[in-house]
Amino acid sequence: MSRDETVCKYCGVSYLILHEFKLMEDKVKAMEKEMKFYEGSVEREKRLQAQLQCLSRDFEQCTADSESKTER
């Protein structure tokens, strides 16, 4: 192919490079969307771990109280 067939007559950019650039833009957009999903996940995980520990302690306390009541 001649250069005239592979280059945009308006901007002078190769169609192959332009196509690759568009693909990369799409990938970046998808990755940004994925990052938004994971944003704050560490903080959420810590908060959930704290809640789980609290609920676990409450459950153990209730179990101990229940056992002490059944012994009486």
From TrEMBL:
Keywords carried by this UniProt record: Coiled coil
Record-linked InterPro entries: LEKR1
Domain of life (superkingdom): Eukaryota
Coiled coil: 21-48
The keyword Coiled coil is annotated on this UniProt entry: yes
PANTHER family hit by this protein: LEUCINE, GLUTAMATE AND LYSINE RICH 1, LEUCINE-, GLUTAMATE- AND LYSINE-RICH PROTEIN 1
Protein name: Leucine, glutamate and lysine rich 1
Species in which this protein is naturally found: Terrapene triunguis (Three-toed box turtle)
Lineage: Eukaryota, Metazoa, Chordata, Craniata, Vertebrata
